[in-house]
Amino acid sequence: MAAHEINTCPRCNSSFECKAGSITQCQCYGLTFTAEEKDLVADNYTDCLCRKCLLELKREAKYRSLTEKKEQMNSILKTR
Questions:
Q1: What is the pTM of this model?
Q2: The domain containing residue 46 runs over which residues?
Q3: What are the φ/ψ torsions at residue 15 (nearest 5 degrees)?
């Protein structure tokens, strides 16, 4: 039987059950991440995060990406 442990999310301090020993039952199972999203998590955290925070970080990464693209477009338009 796989060992499960109670972790505390380093981002929001909520408790959650990590089931890394049985990944298909883990709360993070099924989430996919772009390279940018993975970098955002890895650059800021060294331990598992709760599903809620993982989803929030995905939204933050998407927002950052869209903001950067908007700034690039504005920069291009200003040079014309």
A1: 0.74
A2: 5-78
A3: -90, 145
